Amino acid sequence: MSHPRPLRASALVLPLLALAFSLPACGPADEDPTGGTGGTGNTTTDPGGSGGSGGAGGDTGGMGGTGGTPEPEPQYRKTISGDVTWTVTFDDAAKAAGATDCAYTRHYEGVEDRSAPWLCPSCEIMYLADVQLTAGLDDCFSQVSSAQPNPKEWIGYANGVYFRGAGGPLSEQGTAVVDTTSVQTANQVTGIEASVGGTLGFDVAGTLALGEEEGDPYNGFYPPDMYAAGWPKADPEPYTGNYLLKKGGIVPDGVFKDSLGEPVRLHDFKGSYLVVDMSAMDCPPCQAMASEEEAFVEEMAAQGIEVHVITLLCPSLSNVLGNTTTSMLKSWINKYNLTSPVLADRGWGLSIFEPAIGVDNIGYPSYAVVAPDLTVLDFQTGFGSFDELAAIIQADAQ
Length: 398
What we know:
- By secondary structure, the chain is of the alpha+beta class.
- 16% of the residues lie in helices and 31% in strands.
- Strand 9 and strand 10 form a beta hairpin.
- The model is unreliable at 1-25 and 29-66 (pLDDT under 50).
């Protein structure tokens, strides 16, 4: 795999994976010290962060009906429901500091969601679940985390492995034993630093019942026949590739909501050069990049080169996996007078850029330069100016 070329010294590159840190700019802050919102590392205990659904395209299903009036055939999605309990054991040092062994239980009510396959490419199925901490909030969970429990989580499984995350890349969280009616999960983690000193360990176990209901497994993320905002509509073949970012490979596809609330497919921009970047609203280098974006697009157009800068935006560095609302998207567009699409990220950025750039080097913004045939020309972290991106595009266009 290729490595991103370093930017000039004025570019800001900050790490994302540290579980506890204080930095003045662009790396997301974790909300739960027992896990992580960003990263594909070994967050095998209790990942934090805010949830939210991602986006990826799919077919709407067949049409049926009689009497010359076709009606959509009903769609069905899998469901999951049940409890998982975290039993917490503290060592003697932690107990001497006041910690006590305890347990807390999460109740899950989830539905199948195929809209964000990049969150767990290894999963055979993923569910987006509403989560309620039904026991142990005050006397147990508070001993292991100062954050509020996540109201939503993604969970999935494949080949005997259980995966879990809170809107970003899912990580392995133990075993999954699946039959026709349920999935049983179990996990053990030891040697975690306790907030009072000493260490703690988790013994996790639960059973989730499997079912089915009528509903949309893609959560409404279907691109329209024509975009209300006037975006290009190349309609390429459905994406069947992987979700790895590498030079010479095809940029992974996805569908994301724009400022009109309409699902927009990334690969519909095939035919023009793309700069696909992940940005956070409170990230100074991201703001600097946005402020220079229109001049860059116009300069390229004057040279006869069509370029779209596709911004995948998250609410803030402390909430990189949160829900980017249409009002947030409109605010970003209006502030910088942008004409290229600004879309709600929903975990694509970290899932795609972090494995390619590395957890020690990833930062906001990160971006890929993409050729008209959707081939990745380069990818980088940090922003100095658009000059380097222009040079990459100009060299390819010759």
